[in-house]
Amino acid sequence: MFSHYLTVAWRHLAKQRAFTLVNLLGLASAMAACLFIFIYVHYETHYDTFWPNSAQIYRVVHDRYQNNELSFKSAKAYWGLGHTAKEQLPEVAAATEIFTDKVTASYEENQILDIAMFGVEETFPDVFQLNYLARKSENPFTDLHSSAFSESAARRLFGTTEAIGKWFKIGSWEFEVTTVFKDLPANTHMPFDLLLSKQTYLWYFANKKRTSNRADPKENNNYQAMKPVTKWDWSYAGNFTYLRLKPKTDPEQVEAKINQIKGDYLKHITKDGGWIDFHLQALSGIHLNSNRTMEAVSNGDRRSVWAMGILALVILGIAWMNFVNLTLARSLERAKEVGIRKVAGASRRHLITQYFVEYGLINLLSVVLAVVLVILLQPVVWNILGRKPIALTLLLEPGFLAVSGLVFLAGIVISGFYPALIQSSYSSLSLFKPGHKASAHRLDPRKALVICQFTATIILIIGVITIYRQIDFMRSQDLGVNIERTLVSYSPMSVIGSPARMNTLETYKAKVRALPGVENIATSSSLPGKEIIWQRQDIRKAADLPNETKNYAYAYIDHDFIPTLKLNLVAGRNFSNNAGAETNTVILNESAARQLGYTEPAGAVDAFILMGGKPYQVVGVLKDYHQESLKKEIRPVVLFYGYKWLYDIGYYAIKLNSADIRASVKSIEEVWKQVYPTAHFEYSFLDEAFDKQYQSDRQFGVLFTLLTLLALFIAALGLYGLATYSIQKRTKEIGIRKVNGATAQEIILMLTGEFTKWVGVAFAIACPIAYLVMNRWLQNFAYRTELSWVTFAIAGVAALLIALVTVFYQAYAAATRNPVAALRYE
Amino acid sequence: MLITEKLTKVFLTDEVETTALNRVNFEVKAGEFVAIMGPSGCGKSTLLNIIGLLDNPTGGQYFFDGTDVAGMKESERTLVRKGKIGFVFQSFNLIDELTVFENIELPLLYLKTPPAERKQKVDAVMERLGITARRAHFPQQLSGGQQQRVAIARAVIAGPKLILADEPTGNLDSAHGNEVMELLGKLNAEGTTIVMVTHSPTDSKRAHRIVQLFDGQIVNGTKPD
Lengths: 826, 225
Fold this sequence. Notes:
The structure holds two protein chains of two kinds. Chain A is α+β, with helices and mostly antiparallel strands. In chain A, 48% of the residues lie in helices and 18% in strands. In chain A, helix 11 (302-329) packs parallel to helix 14 (398-424), helix 13 packs across helix 14 (398-424) and helix 15 crosses helix 25 (789-815). The two termini of chain A are 36 Å apart. Chain B has helices spanning 44-51, 74-81, 100-110, 115-129, 144-156, 174-189, 201-204, and strands spanning 2-12, 17-28, 33-37, 59-64, 67-68, 85-89, 162-166, 193-197, 209-214, 217-222. In chain B, strand 9 (209-214) and strand 10 form a beta hairpin. The radius of gyration of chain B is 17 Å and the shape is globular. At the A-B interface, helix 1 and helix 12 of A face helix 2 and helix 3 of B.
């Protein structure tokens, strides 16, 4: 019997080629989109699951309060917390602390810029087990110079993964490759290519005058004794701290215990009105659920991922609705067959089974076509989305196959149930009266389905327009700072700790300023486009009480910073070129002045603030400017004069006014090589760097647009098929109308009018839903565009135009056909 | 074989009530060949549909093989009809997507006849009706006469007691029409009861008895001349 059903199903599909193709295209393209999205969602929701024991690994993070107000939420924890937890809490199986940096590694003529480096402890392998390709010994860090390289970084720097024993440099410090490990999968919240011993790195910072000397055994043996930092002081929140808990441990219990023991270690914070709450984050949940300050890399957005998942199901729903609609439209043609089969003895169950086999076949063909589309299109899709290709081997994983199988079966049931029910309900009398059904249907389900499809597509169109309006809004707003034509470079690592650093810097600045095409050059510890990492919680007006301190971001700038970036001083003055005179002065932004209690910026000028009890005089107030993207509020910022960043990484910002940017860059590079001969010159442009903050939004917009276009295509495909069939059924009526005087125009209006009414109903339903959804989405942005009526109007008109274009050809052909031919057709 | 008592069928639309059959008393004995005649719209096909359990009367009683089937639901009627009643239609009503073989075996599929037995029976009936050479053809590839022979083959494949034929020669030329009537005659001679609706006086002469219908009522039941 099954082979009979299969044979009949195949022949029906082959006979109705046009409709089979429409159904296949609609289903296959929707399924392909869903597969891509499911791959993406799976990838995003499985970050860091590749680590052995990942389910037991947690990151310790903290919320910082000052005088009962939340100052910030940090992804890092305090030095020593991990080890304290390991010592005092039996639930903790292992703990490790990591600090991160980006360095330039060089070997002979090769360099890798901005290599992600982790400084790790000997406890690192207790929590994170790497896949080693080669190693000198069990312990990756046997001495001062040890390092571990990823295979791809080793290949880039050394030209081979057989790098054990090779020596490379970071600045002037030398390291030996003692371990090579397999590349981490791309879906990790903590990507790294280079591991150094944390103690080694700290030792180098503490002993900046010393350079490594491979031949000196004293250095190798004594470095452990010379480590500058104690483990247990909890003084600095600069580490990522990870705990591996014992199996079946409740993380909330461990979190509560850490918050119980913290008091002994944080008196230096609590005595000044500060407070810390520690939390445990599940390792696999960090990527989508953590959006704190000081994350290792930008994390994903859980809401976007789930929005994509829901979008995939919406598109699949539209395709299934298409299928139901087109099947129902042609159901009357099968009425005769149903009648014959019933006369021959078929029960309703036989017929339903037959139809499910047919729908199963078309769904199966669609799945096959969808997989082919995914394989062929995946390089293009990942490229458009600006993502690294995600391996398609995921499609063969048992879990994925199971989910796909369920969706496939669900599709057959959802898309096939109602048509099977309707078609099998035709009575034997259909032989004599086609369309004679077991029961009358008052509500036309096809109209309802088309309305549903167009409702969904109108909502998507409104969504796409809103997303792009928001991106455009953010990029077009006045940032309050001029980031155009501004070349930015890091300060070279070689100046860190160098006694000649100031003189070298002044030399560099003077030479660059003298170049044609250069307007100005400034130095600072932070630039617009990045979060200001440094924060203080102990700043208050001199007149305020000690428990009235609040949180402020702070940075160090020079006297050229404000004019170079064309920031707007609304009160007071800029820093002078006299470092001595500016030792105890600060400049605030308006938000900082307001937070200090000054309603007018001028009121803050000449006032004194205290930071850590030390007084500073406010000499100027800057108009608020956007340090980061418009997704975030402007924070209160305190600017100090100076070069404290010379102990760390700083930025050089060079404002260009040349028409020939390339020539200017070349000249600047030449000056760099003269002044910093051992340092590599790497640069970027500030506006491009600032714009990168919107990269994820742009990618989201592109993806959303592609999916909306797909949904539109599927809906239009369905409408085309339905219109073709509906208009065909009215051939006789059209012929009679023309014979009785109707013009082609009147016929076209009559035929298209029905479909436009459906689009109108869909528009009325879509608007309030879209308003609610997009309004909610816009709340994620500190600065946002408005939901304008124009957006809704454009979406409505677009949907209407698409429907008209889809239907017009069929209507025109029917309206202009010879009425005799139309009547003879009957 | 079958008896109707005061059989009535009224069709209701929004505003119009049409009485297609008005208290019809009709009986066919086993082995009879009965022709039903009358002008268009007199209720012939309606009567045939009810006899064939394709439709329900709105009044009266209908006994098929001693069982009152008048008030049955469609699923119940299907079970009664299966294997017992065969149909031959004016427009053949073959399924275009099935071959000749597959069209003929259809009733056996729904009777869950095993494949080997199905093949044997279909081969036998095709041989008998002279259509073996067309077994793999589709209906569109056959002449009208051949299609009707296939329809008759499908009607008899399950060995039904009763064959209902609705204008079986209506779409055929005289030569093919005669062929079909010959076949029906042979089947009746072998014991199959046949009730046939026809406009053709020539065809009606094959019947044992002619029943005249007019405006939903039997007006005359006579033997043919």
